[in-house]
Amino acid sequence: MGAIVILFIPFYLWEGNPCFDFFIYHKDRYLKLESTYSSILIIFHFIGLPVKMTYGFGAYNLESFLTPLCLKISTIMVIVVFLGIAFILIKSIRFFFSKDENNSIDLDKSTKLAQIIAHPFLYFTIAMLLGSICVSKVFSPQYLLWVVPMFSLIHFRMKEIKVAAALFLFACLFTTFIFPYLYFSEFVRGRTESPAGMLVLEAPSILATNILFVRNMLLIGSTITILFFALPRGLRYNVNG
């Protein structure tokens, strides 16, 4: 966090308050087509929910009378996921040290917690990124590239982590099917222009709907699996019990 602040200061001194405009830009963004919420709304479309696709903020977005509600839920869920995972991480750290009865861990000023319990920190980092992606109103294929290098750093001796990695791998494969192979044939189709000059499109096909929904469920499953695996074994039992 400190490095981010230090790197940000020169830009702020150069540009001033406009440096914070990206917050306004993100606040005003619509519900992106590939998001978890959109994948659910498209399913509802096939049982009668009116939806339409529009183009804005450099992306294709889904609109319905439920979209404003989804946007509000998204903001709340991002906060809940961030604070929830942070709370579980802190509780896991306290549990870890409470089991160190012999005080075998020697902490000095140069020692970081992430060095002592490296793998749990890595698991929680992956869960935080995946969870934020799953509940955000904006989801682009390149977001998954943030997580790929982290999976290469973990060991695969435990069954749970293999399951989480497999779910993530299949989610990446489905994402490849979505973009670029099916995106401009099954997702973006039926282009028309509204009287106001806005580009309006038909809802994605049934094939696109199924692939998108399965991809997002795979990511949610991977997030939950790796988050559970990040818990110390004793704490897992306490949660279950």
Structure notes:
- With 241 residues, this protein is of the alpha+beta class.
- The protein contains ten helices and four strands.
- Strands 2-1-4-3 form a four-stranded antiparallel sheet.
- Helix 3 (36-45) runs antiparallel to helix 9 (206-230) and helix 8 (159-187) packs antiparallel against helix 9 (206-230).
Brief account:
With 241 residues, the chain is an alpha+beta fold. 63% of the residues lie in helices and 6% in strands. The protein has a four-stranded antiparallel sheet with strand order 2-1-4-3.
Furnish the topology, listing elements before pairings:
Blueprint lengths: L1 H14 L5 H8 L7 H10 L6 E5 L2 E5 L3 H32 L14 H4 L1 H18 L12 H4 L7 H29 L4 E2 L5 E3 L4 H25 L2 H8 L1
Percent of residues in helices: 55-70%
Q: How far apart are the termini?
A: 36 Å
Identify low-pLDDT runs. 237-241
Strand order of the largest sheet: 2-1-4-3
With helices defined by DSSP (H or I, 4 residues minimum), what is the helix count? 10
Rg calc: 21 Å
**What's the order of the H and E elements?**
HHHEEHHHHHEEHH
**SSE-based structural type:** alpha+beta
Please report the total strand number as a whole number: 4
Mean pLDDT: 86
Shape: globular
Please report which band the strand proportion falls in: under 5%, 5-15%, 15-25%, 25-35%, 35-45% or over 45%: 5-15%
Largest sheet: 4 strands, antiparallel
